[in-house]
Amino acid sequence: MKVKYATIIVEDMEESIKFYTEVMGLEIDSQYDLGPAGTITLLKGEGETMVEIIKNPVDEPGLFSIGMDVDDINTTVEELKSKGAKITMDPIPITVGTLAFLEDPNGVRIALIQHH
After folding, report:
1. How do residues 74-95 score in pLDDT, each as one tens digit?
2. Cα distances (Å, whole numbers) of residue 86 to 3, 13, 41, 46, 89
């Protein structure tokens, strides 16, 4: 598994973009308007891991999840289940591929994504 991104729910998208670009030195990779579901901005620095900031009407601001890129999500989920991992959402199709969630012992969400 490769760490792909850290997802942070933000209260103010523009203020957050300004912080991550002007203060932290990241660059905007891509932005997505999900209509009433919110907006997403992916920011990149050195290396491959990105920061994903999301503003939506549902989630509270703060760290939302750590995203892991996997080659075969179904096999990965089954392996993790066999090791006692708490799978909180079995694989479902999404726009960019397939997504599943699990939790670490501290309740931190880990998103597993198999991209198309």
Report:
1. 999 999 999 999 999 999 999 8
2. 19, 31, 28, 32, 9
